[in-house]
Amino acid sequence: MIRDVLKMGDPRLLRVARPVTDFGSPQLRALIDDLFDTMAARDGAGIAAPQIGIDLRVVIFGIASHPNYPDADAVPQTVLINPVIEALSPHEEEGWEGCLSVPGMRGWVPRFSHIRYRGYDANGQSIDRTASDFHARVVQHECDHLDGILYPRRIRDLTRFGFTEVLFPGRTLSDD
Ligand code: NI
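Above: inputs. Below: predicted complex with nickel (II) ion.
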C-alpha cells in the first residue's frame, strides 16, 4: 500500500528509531511491502520506515538507473534492518541529494565515499557489504533517517541548498 510520506518539521522524523526484534513477522513484511510501494510511487532511490511514521530501524533502497543520477552505478534492491555503518576511510565526497521528506529541494551533502554496512534482511539473514560512491551515499542517507537526521543537517555550505527547479532549471528531478 502506498503510504503518505512525512515531511520535514514532523517530530516523528527526528526520533531515534527502535531496533527490529521480530524478524519474519507479518507486520514486518507488510511494512516492507508498503515501503517498496511508496518508494516506487514516488520514484525514490530509497526510503526509511520513519518516513512513513513507523518507528523501526528498517530502510530499503535500490536503483537500476535513476534519471536524477545518470552517471551513478546501479545499487542493488536491498532491505536493510538494524544497520550499522562503518567508514572505511575518512575520505568524503560531496554530492547532490534530495529526499521524499524534503520535497522540491536539493542540497550538496558530504558523505563517506567508502563504507562497510551490516544488518539483516527481511528474514533475519545477515548482510555484510562494502560500498562506495553513490551506493555508499544512498545507504548513509537512508540510515541517517533511523537516527532522526535529515540531509539538510549534513550540509556544510548552505548556499548549496535550494529549490530543485531553481538549482536545476529545465530538468525534471523527482524528490527521491
Ligand atoms: Ni530521505
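The pocket of nickel (II) ion is lined by residues 99-101, 141, 145 (CB under 6 Å).
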